[in-house]
Amino acid sequence: MSNKERKIKLLLFSITVITIITYITYSYNYHKTKYIKFELHCKIAIPDMQFITNGFVYIDSIGEMRCFANNFQDSNIEAIFSECDLSTFDFVSYDYLIFFQRKLLQLQYSPKLMKKYDGEYYRKDGRIPLIHIVDSIDSQDTVYIYKIENTNGKFREVVG
Description:
Strand content: 25-35%
Structural class: alpha+beta
Shape: elongated
Number of helices: 4
Low-confidence stretches: none
Number of domains: 2
Order of helices and strands: HEEEHHEEHEEEE
């Protein structure tokens, strides 16, 4: 075997190894669930709340928060913002998640989970849906507002 043939075999072997490592790394990252740290920003008890949802509202700017509040002519929504003053929100450092009647237990994302939980896997805006695990409905009719580190528009709510 000549020196040239050895170099070609070594090159092919190297390309094969790099291809296999790349495939394994991609597969691992595709299936790996990534957890997001969250913190309770405020908790507001609202008696006789009529708003029930399985999802949550994702807010990443003061404009979205005001738009969210203005979309409801409901005294319950007004109560949320009277108890949890808008001046306490820091939209430079954090994004906010509003859950109605449910405590957030876990927040995660991954390409595999996107396809499983969300019918809009390939959206044009490219934002990743957050997968949330919540406690059962809170009998006290409570609104929970959680904060996560600012993600510069990387995430969105789950659709459906």
